[in-house]
Amino acid sequence: MPDPDGTGPWNFTAAITAGGQSRRFGSDKALALLAGRALLDHVAAALEQCPRRLLVAPPGRYTLPGWTSVADTRPGEGPLAGLEAALGAAPPGWVALSGVDLPGLTPAYWTTLAGARTLEALSVQVLDPSGRPQPLGALYHTSLLPRVSALLDAGERRLRLAAPPEWIVTLAPPASGDLRNINTPADLAALQDPAG
């Protein structure tokens, strides 16, 4: 069922998590340049069609026109806490969650994920080459908020536990998006290299 809410493929809230420390990168990777634009701008451009757009980051760190800043509810607790903040700030429905370090995602990628939603699903995730669902660059339903909060309250930080496996729709990597994660300057260099 490609459109369970009946309002079109872009009937979800965009959320970018940008609260990390960028330790492995060595500087603020959100502002690192790829093809002359900051990684944050690349990620935001892929989600511009969303009617609601949330940037989960420390207050005042970044400015994105048309995006609403949302404070991380549990600073330093990682992407699961970023998801909690996004689910709490979004209206009921679906949230597209991306890290600031996924500049290869495209509008077509998100359209593909939106089309894979079902009435029973609570998350849509792409499989990596080893067949493992990837929890970033994924869709989550806001009804997961109590589960996510309970996981965090129990000391859990793994984003991949946000949705029970039986409620996750998985799909092969769409040709329209590159899920490579930028964690180090070498990762960025490989993405800039056409042979990388």
UniProtKB/TrEMBL annotation:
Residues that hold Mg(2+) according to the record: 101
* Protein family according to the UniProt entry: Belongs to the MobA family.
Which cofactors, if any, are listed as required? Answer: Mg(2+)
Q: Which HAMAP family match?
A: MobA (MF_00316)
- Domains as described in the record: The N-terminal domain determines nucleotide recognition and specific binding, while the C-terminal domain determines the specific binding to the target protein.
Q: What is this protein called?
A: Probable molybdenum cofactor guanylyltransferase
Query: Which part of the chain is the MobA-like NTP transferase domain?
Result: 14-159
Give EC number(s), comma-separated.
2.7.7.77
According to its UniProt entry, what is the function of this protein? Answer: Transfers a GMP moiety from GTP to Mo-molybdopterin (Mo-MPT) cofactor (Moco or molybdenum cofactor) to form Mo-molybdopterin guanine dinucleotide (Mo-MGD) cofactor.
Pfam families in the record: NTP_transf_3
The GO molecular function terms of this record are: nucleotidyltransferase activity
Q: What is its main location?
A: cytoplasm
Q: Which organism is it from?
A: Deinococcus navajonensis
Q: Which UniProt keywords apply?
A: Cytoplasm, GTP-binding, Magnesium, Metal-binding, Molybdenum cofactor biosynthesis, Nucleotide-binding, Nucleotidyltransferase, Transferase
Record's catalysed reaction(s): Mo-molybdopterin + GTP + H(+) = Mo-molybdopterin guanine dinucleotide + diphosphate
Enzyme class at the top of the EC tree? transferase
